[in-house]
Amino acid sequence: MIRFATRYDIPRLYEIVTAYSKEYPISTLGKDHFNVPKYLHEFLFSIIQGRGFILIDKHMTGALIAIKQQNIWCPDVVELHELLWWVEREHRNTTVGGKLWIEYDKIASRMLANGEINCAYTSVSAKGPLINYIKRGYKAVGASFVKE
Q1: What is the distance between the alpha carbons of residues 6 and 45, in angstroms, rounded to a whole number?
Q2: What is the C-alpha separation between 131 and 129, in angstroms, rounded?
Q3: Interhelix angle for 10-23 vs 37-46, to 10°?
Q4: When you count CB atoms within 10 A of the terminal residue's CB, does the N or C end of the chain come out lower?
Q5: Alpha helices, DSSP H only, in the chain?
Q6: Could you read off the pLDDT of 29-70 as tens digits, one per residue?
Q7: CB contact at 8 A, 64 and 105
Q8: Coil, strand or helix: which one is 55?
Q9: How distant is the alpha carbon of residue 87 from its chain centre?
Q10: Kind of pairing between the strands at 78-87 and 62-70
Q11: Distance between CA 49 and CA 147 in Å, rounded?
Q12: Which of 116, 138, 103, 118 is nearest to 51 (CA)?
């Protein structure tokens, strides 16, 4: 079962975000000094309170964080961005990740239909599975690369 996270899930979400940052392919993000508990707590709480949403599975082995924000070039356009999609390593060959994304897609579709957002973004992680989002109604808009 996938559900919306609540403020009571923030300690577990903090652990998930920390694990994600340590596995993210940008080494600076995995350093201990990057994880500022007060900022992260406030940030997660703001998303739960309406800045987006956080999905978590019933066993808390995975989460998907989505954030609503204005388009930088056109402030009248509100976008939904998949910010983090994480499943604990030992649960990655299960259906948890897929269920999280399917729920994200359903919510994004509802938000598009009711005019709450103008577009929704999803992404392919460098270390994640290669998923054909085009079959799911998305179109490619580019790829991101980083140099440290």
Answers
A1: 8
A2: 6
A3: 110
A4: C
A5: 10-23, 37-46, 96-113
A6: 556 545 567 788 899 999 999 999 999 999 999 999 999 999
A7: no
A8: strand
A9: 11
A10: antiparallel
A11: 34
A12: 116
pTM score: 0.85
Q: Which two tokens stand for residue 115?
A: 């005019």
Q: Are strands 2-4 and 119-121 parallel, antiparallel or unpaired?
A: unpaired
- Name the DSSP class of 93: T
Residue type, 58: K
Looking at the chain, how many residues does it have?
148
> Which DSSP state fits 115?
T
What distances in angstroms separate CA 77 from CA 2, 44, 117, 136, one per listed residue?
28, 23, 7, 22
